[in-house]
Write the structure tokens for this entry.
Amino acid sequence: MEIKVVSDLQGQECDILVVNQFEGEKTTQELANKYAIEEDKFEGKFGQTYLLPTYGKQKARKILVIGFGKKAEFTPDKLRIATEKALKKAIQMKAKSVAYEYTGVDFDYAEQFTYGVGIANYSFDKYKTKKDDKVETVYVNADEKELRRAEIITKAMKFTRDLANEPAAYATPTKLAEIAQTFGLETKIYDRDECEKMGMGAFTAVSKGSAQPPKFIHIKYTPQNPKKRIAIIGKGLCFDSGGLDLKPPASMLTMRDDMSAGACVLGVMSVIKELAPDVEVNGIIAACENMPGCAAYKPGDVLTAMNGKTIEVDNTDAEGRLTLADALCYAEKLGVDEIIDLATLTGACMVALGTVRSGIVGNDDKFVKDLIKVASDCGEKYWELPMDEEYKESLKSDIADMQNTGSRWGGAQTAGLFLQEFVDKAKWAHIDIAGTAFFEKPQGEFIKGSAGAGVRAMLNYVTKQ
Ligand code: BES
Ligand code: MN
Ligand code: ZN
């Protein structure tokens, strides 16, 4: 989809001209005011739409009125959602070109507008012989610089969504490693032997039951004078069957999504040169599958992570934290200032927060608050979870330094406490995207499948330093 910035939207030939209506106010279009508002009493409640043909009286073939609700309650989030609703409607009408003429909005909407059309125009139709309808051109009058920046971020989101939606048979650890090498960045791929030599006994154990070899991926972006050095780690379980503690069918069904955070890291790194932030960004993925093959790691095994700490395997389905443990140690060894890890880590986080908000914990209050704020400004919702010391007890093992599962109650925070054992000096935040990365049914602006969680927040975070 191409976004064109034009000032004369009225004079723009297109299939649909979208105009907004705040409750109790008029639109810029006489036709809409006469038929929708006066005759049909269209109120302009938030998200309501009204479509009317122009019968050649105007350059646009149809006018779509989108309700913006009460002006006093209008927000950038609402603008994005309304934009998405209008675009979905346009797709339903098989429109190819859509012009948006927004008036009376008292904030700069280039960013949210761009996310809106990009998210709504997405579908995963690679494997369909008949492709889905899409809008090809969008016209808008908005700040071009901000719009182009948001367009790059939206491109990264699409990249991430495409990759996370792929079947596990395609998106293997080897494939992720291949993709990582296409960005023209300094990239290191460590195979199983090298990981073992580095002491990554937790990560390599998880991969043992699979025929797919593990790949530890490190992609590095270095600007001229980096203001700080950041590592972004993404859980990269290309498939999580649960391992020997096998998941039941309903839980296993969507487990190709367990590399969503890894796909997020790849999406972020795919556009980092274009956005050119002033910070060093290290994208890290410990990619593997969790399978119950005959060489699989077993409950009761004792693993040694890269920092020397030993872990008793209580449940082979708590594999994500094992892969992250070694990834965190690796990031610490790089000596970065900040580490952010993203992971589809716990069902408990989904139970606690649902599928709208991701959970966040960390070791530095300001760092966590900054991330929550950046995320919220670009349309991602995070919620801070506690990490209560009381739960540390539940991670104790009789034979090793710790076990890989803690208390079931508070399962998202016990996972956080486990991860913290592998963090040393860096500021660290852990974002659990189990509920927000991949939807089992359409949710808001998102269709079923990957939502590209983390991409907007991470790219805005690194560019706004
Ligand atoms: N990948 C899952 C978590 C998950 C669940 C992600 C649902 C997305 C949707 C993770 O590896 C897992 O299996 N976690 C277990 C941990 C438990 C064994 C302590 C869980 O949450 O049940
Ligand atoms: Mn698991
Ligand atoms: Zn998992």
